[in-house]
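Structure in, sequence out. Go:
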C-alpha cells in the first residue's frame, strides 16, 4: 500500500497523450504484418489495416488537432501538451510508421508473396513489345483511357480540389497543345471504380496465374497517350487526405437526416491535412503540390510504392490460396437459441451469454425473427449504431413490422463513416412501418440494446439482449464481443426506461441494475474503484480487471491511481489508446496495462471488481473515454448468473496469461512485446479451440 497523499495525481506528466498512444496502437498492428507465425495473406491484411487506421487518424484526429491549433484553443488532454508539440510529435512518429509500412511491404511481404507464386510486376519487368506490355497497353486504351480526365493547369484551369484519398498523378509537361497553350503541369485522377490491382491473364508468355500489376504502374507507363503532341517529362502519383469530420449544428436543424444527407458530399472536399507522393517525385514538384494544397513539409509523406496501400486488401479475394489465410472456423450455436427452438422458454429458465466470434451471432437474428412470428409479442425496440448494408438484423426488423409488431428503432445517424448506410437503413425501416428515431441531440446513441415485450399469463414480460458490440453480422465474425440474453424483469424495465429517454421526453429515470451514461456510468465505476480501495485499506483482497478499447478519461484514471495507492491490484487490458502511465512510483505501482493484437479485433468491454467475497462483473458498450461517459448514451449491464460470471472471469484470466499476442505498456508510453517461455498461450486461439468456454 502506498497511500501517499503528496503525489499530485492530476500532474500532466502522469498522463500519456492520447493521439501518440493511438499511433503506438497502429505500430502494434503493423507488427502483425511482420510476424511469421501469422499466415502470409493475413500479414498483408494487417499492413492494409495499419494504413486504413492511419488514414482515419489523419482525417479525424490530426485534422481536429490542427483546427484547435489554428483557433488557439488550450491543450485538450490531461497531459497538457500544446497542440504545436502534439503535431510535431505526430509528424515524427507517423513518418517513421509510414517508412516502416513500405519497408515491410517491399523487403518482407512482396518477396514472401513472390516465393508463393504471387507476383506484383513492376514497369521494369515489362519488356517493350512483349505480350505483357502489348496486353497492358491494350488494357490502358480500352479500359482506362475512356474514363481518365486529365486537367491541364493554367489560368483557366486552376489546381483541382481532388477527392479525399483518391489516387492522382501530377504530370510535368513540355510543349504546346492544339491551341498553342503551354502548361507546366497537369493532374490525372483515377476514378475509384477502377481496380487498383489488375490481374494479368496467365495465357500470356511467362505469366503465372497469380500475377498482378498495379493500376498506378499502368497509368504511369502510358500516361503520354493522354497528351498527344506533348512531351511528358515526369509522372508521379499522389494522394491528399482531407478533414472528414462532419459538422451539423443539431440544435439548429429541423431534420437531422436531411441535414446529414446535405453534408455527406462535403466530406470528400474538407481541408487538406496530408500529402502522399511517390518517393522519386522531384522536390520542385512536391513543393508545387504543397503550395497548392497549403500544406507544409511536415505534412508530406514520400512513399516507395502505391500511395493507397489499403487497396491491396483486395488481393485475398483475387487469389485462391486458403493455405496462406487463417483457417476457417465454425462458431458455436448457443443451446436453446437455435433456429426452430423457443428462445422465450429458454430465457425463462436461464440467461444466455454469447461470446463472439466464438459463439455464433445467428441467435440474435433468430431472436428477432421468433419475436416477429410469435403472436404474443407486442413490441420490439432496438438500437442500431453500425449494422452494415443488406443487414439480416434490419431485414428481420422489417419482417417484424410487416407482421404487425410495434417496432421502434433508434438509428444513430452520426456513426462516423457509416452515416450514408444508416440513412438508407432508416428509410428502409420507415418504409416498412417501423418507428425510427435518431436519439438525443448532443448525445450519440451508442448503447447496444434489444427489447421484446411479450404478453404472457402473468402479464407483460420483457426479454432483453444487451451487447458490447454492434448488431453487425459481419463484424461479429471479426470482433470479440459479448451479448447477453436475459428475461430478468429489473433489467428489462431498465432497458425500457432507457428507450423512453431516447424516444420521448422527461426526467432521468432511476435504473435498477444498469449503469447508464451520461448519468450513472462514470460515477458508478468510480464508486466501485473507491470500494475496492476501502477493501485494500482494510487488509482484504482487492482486485480490478478492466478490458476495453481505450482509456482516456482523466477523473477515472485518477480514481485508478488512488486505488493503486491504496493497494488494489489493477489489471487493464486496453487494446488501443491508454493515457494512464503504469508502474509510476506513488501513482500506479499496482497497475499493469496490456494490449492484445491478434486475428480478431478485441472489442469487449468488461469491468470486474473483486468486491470482497462477492465479485461484481459488468459488460458494457462504453470505453472509459470522455465521449463514452459524457457525450453518448451507453449502458453497462451486470452478469448476474454465477456460472456465466465465472466463465467471463476465467476468460479474462486467460487474456492475462496470454504471451503470444500481448504487448505491455511501459511508464514512458512505449510498448514491449511479451515473449513466452516454452509453449505460448494465445487467448484467442484457446477460445477458438473451446478450452476456456466454460468455468
Amino acid at each position: 500500500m502506498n497511500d501517499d497523499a503528496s503525489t499530485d495525481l492530476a500532474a500532466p506528466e502522469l498522463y500519456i497523450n492520447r493521439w501518440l498512444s493511438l499511433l503506438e496502437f497502429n505500430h502494434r498492428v503493423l507488427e502483425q504484418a511482420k510476424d511469421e507465425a501469422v499466415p502470409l495473406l493475413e500479414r498483408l491484411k494487417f499492413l492494409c489495416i495499419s494504413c486504413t487506421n492511419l488514414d482515419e487518424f489523419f482525417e479525424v484526429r490530426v485534422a481536429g488537432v490542427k483546427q484547435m491549433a489554428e483557433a488557439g484553443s488550450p491543450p485538450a488532454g490531461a497531459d497538457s501538451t500544446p497542440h504545436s508539440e502534439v503535431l510535431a510529435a505526430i509528424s515524427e512518429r507517423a513518418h517513421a510508421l509510414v517508412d516502416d509500412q513500405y519497408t515491410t511491404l517491399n523487403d518482407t511481404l512482396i518477396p514472401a508473396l513472390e516465393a508463393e507464386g504471387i507476383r506484383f510486376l513492376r514497369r521494369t519487368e515489362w519488356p517493350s513489345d512483349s505480350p505483357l506490355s502489348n496486353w497492358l497497353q491494350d488494357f490502358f486504351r480500352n479500359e482506362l483511357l475512356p474514363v481518365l480526365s486529365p486537367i491541364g493547369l493554367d489560368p483557366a484551369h486552376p489546381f483541382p480540389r481532388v477527392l479525399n484519398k483518391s489516387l492522382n498523378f501530377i504530370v510535368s509537361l513540355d510543349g504546346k497543345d492544339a491551341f498553342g497553350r503551354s502548361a507546366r503541369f497537369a493532374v490525372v485522377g483515377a476514378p475509384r471504380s477502377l481496380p487498383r490491382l489488375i490481374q494479368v491473364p496467365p495465357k500470356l508468355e511467362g505469366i503465372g496465374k497469380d500475377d498482378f500489376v498495379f493500376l498506378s504502374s499502368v497509368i504511369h507507363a502510358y500516361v503520354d497517350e493522354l497528351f498527344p503532341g506533348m512531351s511528358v517529362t515526369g509522372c508521379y502519383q499522389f494522394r491528399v487526405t482531407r478533414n472528414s469530420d462532419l459538422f451539423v449544428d443539431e440544435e439548429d436543424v429541423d431534420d437531422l437526416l436531411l441535414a446529414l444527407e446535405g453534408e455527406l458530399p462535403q466530406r470528400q472536399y474538407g481541408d487538406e491535412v496530408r500529402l502522399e507522393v511517390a518517393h522519386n517525385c522531384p522536390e520542385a514538384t512536391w513543393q508545387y503540390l504543397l503550395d497548392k494544397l497549403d500544406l507544409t513539409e511536415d505534412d508530406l509523406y514520400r512513399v516507395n510504392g502505391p500511395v493507397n496501400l489499403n487497396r491491396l486488401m483486395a488481393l485475398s479475394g483475387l487469389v485462391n490460396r486458403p493455405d496462406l489465410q487463417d483457417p476457417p472456423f465454425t462458431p458455436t450455436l448457443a443451446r436453446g437459441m437455435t433456429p426452430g427452438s423457443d428462445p422465450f422458454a429458454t430465457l425463462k429458465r436461464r440467461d444466455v451469454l454469447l461470446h463472439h466470434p466464438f459463439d455464433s451471432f445467428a441467435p440474435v437474428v433468430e431472436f428477432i425473427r421468433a419475436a416477429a412470428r410469435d403472436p404474443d409479442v407486442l413490441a420490439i425496440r432496438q438500437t442500431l449504431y453500425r449494422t452494415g448494408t443488406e443487414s439480416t438484423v434490419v431485414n428481420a426488423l422489417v419482417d417484424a413490422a410487416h407482421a404487425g409488431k410495434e417496432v421502434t428503432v433508434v438509428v444513430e445517424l452520426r456513426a462516423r463513416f457509416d452515416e450514408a448506410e444508416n440513412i438508407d437503413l432508416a428509410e428502409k425501416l420507415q418504409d416498412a412501418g417501423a418507428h425510427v428515431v435518431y436519439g438525443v441531440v448532443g448525445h450519440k446513441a451508442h448503447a447496444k440494446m434489444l427489447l421484446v415485450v411479450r404478453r404472457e399469463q402473468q402479464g407483460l414480460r420483457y426479454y432483453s439482449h444487451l451487447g458490447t458490440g454492434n448488431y453487425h453480422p459481419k463484424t461479429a465474425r471479426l470482433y470479440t464481443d459479448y451479448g447477453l440474453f436475459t428475461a430478468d424483469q429489473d433489467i428489462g424495465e431498465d432497458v425500457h426506461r432507457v428507450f423512453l429517454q431516447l424516444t420521448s421526453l422527461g426526467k432521468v429515470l432511476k435504473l435498477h441494475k444498469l449503469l447508464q451514461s451520461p448519468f450513472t456510468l462514470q460515477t458508478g465505476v468510480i464508486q466501485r474503484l473507491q470500494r475496492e480501495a476501502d477493501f485494500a485499506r482494510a487488509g482484504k483482497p482487492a482486485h480490478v480487471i478492466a478490458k476495453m478499447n481505450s482509456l482516456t478519461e482523466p477523473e477515472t484514471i485518477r480514481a485508478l491511481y488512488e486505488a493503486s495507492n491504496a493497494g488494489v491490484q489493477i489489471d487493464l487490458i486496453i487494446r488501443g489508446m491508454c493515457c494512464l502511465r503504469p508502474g509510476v512510483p506513488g501513482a500506479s505501482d499496482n497497475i499493469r496495462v496490456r494490449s492484445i493484437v491478434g486475428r480478431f479485433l478485441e472489442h469487449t468491454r468488461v469491468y470486474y471488481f473483486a468486491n470482497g467475497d462477492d465479485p461484481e462483473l459488468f459488460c458494457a458498450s462504453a470505453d472509459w473515454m470522455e465521449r463514452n461517459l459524457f457525450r453518448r448514451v451507453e449502458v453497462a449491464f451486470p452478469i448476474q448468473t454465477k456460472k456465466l460470471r465465472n466463465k467471463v472471469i476465467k476468460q479474462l484470466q486467460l487474456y492475462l496469461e496470454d504471451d503470444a499476442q500481448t504487448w505491455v505498456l511501459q511508464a514512458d508510453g512505449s510498448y514491449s512485446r511479451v515473449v513466452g517461455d516454452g509453449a505460448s498461450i494465445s487467448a484467442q486461439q484457446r477460445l477458438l479451440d473451446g478450452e476456456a468456454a466454460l468455468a
